[in-house]
Amino acid sequence: MSHPDGKIVLVTGGASGFGREITTQLAHGGATPVALDINAAGAEELAASLTAAGHPARGVGLDVRDRQAFADVVDQVVADYGRVDVLVNNAGIMPLAHFSDHKRAADAWDRCIDINLKGVLHGIYAVHDHMLRQGGGHILNLSSVYGNAGIAGAAVYGATKAAVATVSNALRVESQGRIKVTIVRPSGVLGTNLFTEILDFNAVAALAAHRGPVLQEHIQQFAGGTLPTEMSDPHNARYWSLTAPQVAAEIVRLIDQPLGVAITDVTLRATGEDYVF
User: Which listed site, 36, 40, 135, 209, has its alpha carbon 20 to 30 Å from 236?
Assistant: First the structure.
């Protein structure tokens, strides 16, 4: 990598999952990442471990739902480092559930809207003027394949991810020649904290449509350690599920481009996955 070298990169949800991997890989690539996470202790621990290994980083507690707090954190980063080059809007939750379960799910859906959509907007607000003043910047917003269609059991989560794509495209058009904007749409990745927020695990199968029963079988094999060897081999076309480090590596590659080269919309999938949408 060469382009992230020396850049100041903010990563929301930076203490775990995709965010932790992105923060770590950027630090190893010469950037100075700032992990922003509601888990302040986790963000600070990650930054301390990276810094101790010779890779400067910072960890800051932040609830992305708090617009003023987001602005204050970015202002402080700019005051300390002189600029903010990249924002990765990664923080998100995935409370899958059907409308028939609305009484149990409504509060989680409200949180989903506040984090997945409003949190992205708060990040854009916080860095926008700084990036314009310094003559450029890059904003990467994580959407999802769930945002590609209305999928049973994912109405609210999918709506937030579709909205992120719409917001990103509008921001790209408004910011041409000033701020680079990228939409990243990962498909289902097992082993991240997104799955801890699911309310109805039966809803996951809808993303696979007619392959739903096969998906359930493969999930059981994955959990039991019996997934066929070729489905665990990224060099095989039957490779079944990306990992968080692989997704993070692709996001870092998107950052590792000249400022004038814009990759605006990327979907990340495993070749042999069961998801249809």
Answer: 209
Q: In whole angstroms, what is the distance from residue 188 CA to residue 108 CA?
A: 20
Residue 233: CB atoms within 10 A of its CB come to 13
Q: Which residues pair with 10 in a beta bridge?
A: 34, 87
Q: Is 157 a catalytic residue?
A: yes
In tens, the pLDDT along 230-249 reads 999 999 999 999 999 999 99
User: d(Cα 118, Cα 67) in Å, to the nearest integer?
Assistant: 8
What pLDDT is attached to residue 195? Answer: 78
Whole-number Cα distances in Å, 74 to 44, 55, 202, 218: 16, 21, 39, 42
Q: Which two tokens stand for residue 196?
A: 């801890």
Q: pTM of the prediction?
A: 0.95
DSSP annotation of 140: E
Helix (H, G, I), strand (E, B) or coil at 9: strand
CA distances from 33 to 7, 77, 84, 101, 156 (A): 8, 11, 10, 40, 31
Inter-residue long-range contacts of 209-216, CB under 8 Å, 24+ positions, other chains counted? 209/276, 209/277, 210/276, 211/274, 211/275, 211/276, 212/274, 214/274, 215/274, 215/275
Q: Rg of the chain's alpha carbons, rounded to an integer?
A: 18
Element (H, E) at 228: none
| Mean pLDDT along residues 142-157 | 96
- Per-residue pLDDT at 193: 75
Choosing from 146, 157, 239, 275, which is the catalytic residue? Answer: 157
Work out the pLDDT band at 1, boundaries 50, 70, 90: low
